[in-house]
Design goal:
6 copies of one chain form a homohexamer. Chain A is of the alpha+beta class. Chain A contains 4 helices and 5 strands. In chain A, strand 4 (about 140-150) and strand 5 form a beta hairpin.
């Protein structure tokens, strides 16, 4: 196995932005997910009030995730600013786990993995915030990239993207 | 078991900020963690270059986490703005898992759980960003509150705060 | 009638922040409204889908307004930063006019009129954005302060706060 | 008349960003206005000090409006980030009404209506802020789009763009 | 001479925020200056149009400086957020050098030196931006703290605060 | 000598953004520097701990500078938003002067001089912040553009870019 390479580190080990000036512009997409174990009482309450379909905890989380995706380069130090063409955040249940999925699309010179992860992460934190008065033990039990397409490094997909 | 209550939802189910105008000012603290499964090759490389002790992946992540904590109320819709007295972010290894821990302190009228979670989350995403050229399969396998102190709801501690 | 005075202008006419260092801390509230004439077809469509009660145009607008209130001092050059205790945004219909009302509360040294107006304004702009594909002729036909309480200048109420 | 369509709402009624990835890049412009009824005493004072021509209330408002246009996508949840080519804000009097007019230009995949409206709105709020010590009854009596050009939906002009 | 101490570095040399939770709240002030050598042609032009007294280069710079002071904790990683009571930025000429002076006041637990320096710095950069089409060789030839008062470390004054 | 022209001022002297809609897209670069006279005791301490090579004062400053470059158009009122392709910040010693150098690259319609100057400025302010507990008399003794390339106005280089 070859050594892993760190594009954001200079020869001397300093953090740096990658120079993307010579990269071709192409369509990039990425999907990420956050799985929030809210516990049965909160899951029941959220489901009872229809909160997932059209309710307000999830709707607020979705909006927060979309807005956060647009600010990714302000949060993640070495991220390039990008003009996102599309951001979507959805939510569904797997038992008592609320699964947030984000997808991002852009025509640009760098990928949108960080934007998808930031959207999923802030949406999940918003769910936590909206539910924390009902239980502080909520755990975001995974936050990960599901898939990316486009760019020099090509397409990539997590081994198991829908369940694990 | 009583019904869980959602302080951020109005009677009619709309998202709203809690009115904290009558809450007393007191010292609040919170600690949160994010556990990043980077995989052995990346973990080895990060350890080899001393990157955890004083290196740049972790240092960049720590700084990003501290800066993000200060912007929590801009990211999480119903969070109150707070004047944070202290934010710290540390990192240590558990096998090939890089564990980020944040701690936040404030004298105010609302808790700092969201600030601690935001710091840990953005620090973890920064690690992902700095390492993603070496492997996209990095997973943030948990993001959770470890402990909080202060406020009307009192102190709270996760069952197992150091390992699980 | 005495000359109107402009607290934000120096003797020589330069824009400046008022020094609030000697003002006492007290509870301040403000309410503002924006009236959006959306026209009958859009009003009917919004009402049909129950969009006001729990729907997504208004819910998105409410969240945008609450978030904007927290950023008022970043938008309005001479505004002081404040720690808001509460922000609420509601919506109701008067015929085909969607009326947005914001209310803000803070214990501080300056009033929260600008925060209430900013919340109402950004909520109204968000309604416009969400509906503009259905008709660009939507007009925000008034944006104004309804009431304020607290502070040295005391309480103030618009002549007609509920209809005009 | 056909049903109005809401591009920002999904089939199931959730707020979402429009995917602009397939839209062609073209020149877009938009003009918007805000009319601020400041009342005679304030209007006289602003005019006496030449404040409109080169003065500071209006100059501060113009700058605030220009800066706000650049942040539109951070304020309006479903707005796409854009690289604005030009933003201008002007002011003139119609009796005791201060009329703010913004114009925005961009070569991009979405229109700049929201940027023009945001600029006019924040400029008007800044006038309010700078004058509110002289009278809280100032009313922004209309905030609306005057004209847009470019894009798939073509050009659009308000019925009466200069007076009403 | 004793070793200089770095309050923002931990024992192990990592960057960190100072914990100000136990510091008493007191009035803090700071003044800073930036001296911009614009060269004679630009200085003459700025003076001819009265640009310093009420003109637009300096007025824009003043406003930019005031707004930047409010964002200091977003720019400087280890700075604490503060509720500023007052920010002022003035400008005067020393020959062909435009001298920007900022002053900041706050009742809080940390000093406002960084806020004053940030205000002076961004005001000076704005002057550069407004004048750069007329000459790129403009140099900000000093940026420094002039004075601070309040806090545990007490008052401090630069040796020569008005000329050098 | 011809009159200097101010691209950001309108005929009537009002601050305005330049319309760049007709400018061709081309590669732009800029380099800027900030020279920080920290004094011998602080310089020695920073050097002893290897702080320049891999240490934390400089690393924090570098990251702050890179992040600030991305926010230039939010800080400098008349700056256009840009999609930066690359930002780098380095530091080296000249005696007891810490020299920060920034370089920025972009393919766009306006130059990146302000981005380079903002990066250098905020990096220098961060050094000040990290060291101020050890001595408030630190002076940023120059902040200037070193070089720019690209754009209609062509290439430009300061007379002496490496020492003075």
């Amino acid at each position: 196995m070859t050594e892993p390479s760190f594009a954001h580190l200079s020869e001397s080990g300093q953090a740096c932005m990658v120079d993307v000036g010579d990269k071709p512009r192409s369509v990039r997409t990425a999907r990420a997910e956050a799985r929030i174990a809210v516990g049965k009482p909160i899951a029941d309450r959220l489901r009872d009030t229809g909160a997932i379909g059209k309710g307000n905890v999830v709707e607020t989380a979705r909006i927060a995730g979309i807005m956060a995706a647009k600010r990714t380069s302000n949060l993640i130090p070495m991220c390039h600013p990008l003009l996102l063409d599309h951001v979507a955040v959805t939510a569904d249940w797997e038992g008592d786990v609320l699964r947030i999925e984000s997808s991002v699309r852009c025509a640009g010179v760098t990928g949108v993995e960080m934007e998808a992860l930031t959207a999923a992460s802030v949406a999940a934190l918003t769910v936590y915030d909206m539910c924390k008065s009902a239980g502080k033990g909520i755990v975001i039990e995974s936050l990960r990239l599901l898939e990316k397409t486009g760019g020099k490094s090509g397409d990539w997909k997590a081994y198991s993207t829908e369940s694990h």
